[in-house]
Specification:
0% strand; mainly alpha; 106 residues
């Protein structure tokens, strides 16, 4: 018994023009809804990140003075390393104290 190759393949469903139009309309509506969702989420993201962006812009306004002060501190630190270590220890102790006080007041 010889079977032809075409007889073993499943029958293909031919879409009517109406089915294609309906499917296309559904896909276009889905794409439009996805675009709206993306716009809404982008707006929420911008609102959520606004304080960080504002802080970064404020920091960038003082970029040149910060570089200048940092350079002066680096120069002083290279000449007097013990004073830099003393200041670093005090800053670390102050940060730890501040963190403990904040935890205590919660």
């Amino acid at each position: 018994m010889t079977e032809t190759r075409a007889s073993r393949l499943p029958a293909r469903r031919t879409d009517t023009a109406l089915d294609r139009v309906e499917r296309k309309a559904h896909l276009e509506a889905t794409i439009e809804q996805q675009r709206i969702d993306i716009l809404v989420e982008a707006s929420r993201w911008r609102e959520a990140s606004r304080p960080i962006d504002d802080g970064w812009r404020a920091l960038m306004r003082f970029k040149v003075p910060l570089y200048t002060v940092g350079g002066m501190l680096l120069l002083k630190g290279s000449r007097h390393p013990h004073s830099v270590l003393r200041v670093a220890r005090r800053l670390a102790a102050g940060a730890l104290l501040f963190r403990r006080v904040r935890r205590l007041l919660r």
